[in-house]
Structure formats: structure tokens, C-alpha cells
Amino acid sequence: MMVSPAQARAARKWNAEHREVMSKSAAKSSAKRFILKLADEDELKEVQQWLAQRKDVDSGAK
């Protein structure tokens, strides 16, 4: 579907100003796909360990 030149400019401007948001969104989507569709049991355990480590770090910083 074609978009108007103004809408295309606005989208490019938003993308340029929100690179971090787009990067985080892409990483989150990749992680979710890996966990839900690709990971085997051992890899899921490893992800759980990473989450536990992250929670420990976050709880220690407060």
C-alpha cells in the first residue's frame, strides 16, 4: 500500500528519533520467538538462570 510523501517523511523522522525503541522492540521479539518456538529444554533452563541473575542484580540495586 502506498503512503503519502508526508506520511513517509513522518515515519522516517520517527524511526530516526526512536532508534533505541526500535532496537529494544526487535530484541524483545527475537527473544520471545527463541523462547516460544526454538529453545530446547536445556536452553530454557539457561534462560531461566539469566532471568534469576538479572532479578538478583535488580533487587541488589534497590
Mean pLDDT: 95
The proportion of residues forming helix, as a percent range, comes to: over 70%
Order of helices and strands: HHH
Query: Rg, please?
Result: 18 Å
Poorly predicted sequence stretches spanning 5 or more consecutive residues: none
The shape, in one word, is elongated
- Per DSSP E runs of 2 or more residues, the count of β-strands stands at 0
Count of separate DSSP helical elements: 3
Estimate the strand proportion: under 5%
Distance between the termini: 48 Å
Largest sheet: none
- Secondary structure category: mainly alpha
Keywords summarizing the entry:
elongated; 62 residues; mainly alpha
Describe this entry's structure for a reader:
There is one protein chain. The protein is mainly alpha-helical. 87% of the residues lie in helices and 0% in strands. The model has no long low-confidence stretch (mean pLDDT 95).
Concise structural overview:
The chain is mainly alpha-helical and 62 residues long. The protein contains three helices and no strands.
Describe the secondary structure blueprint for this structure.
Layout: H1 5-17, H2 19-38, H3 41-61
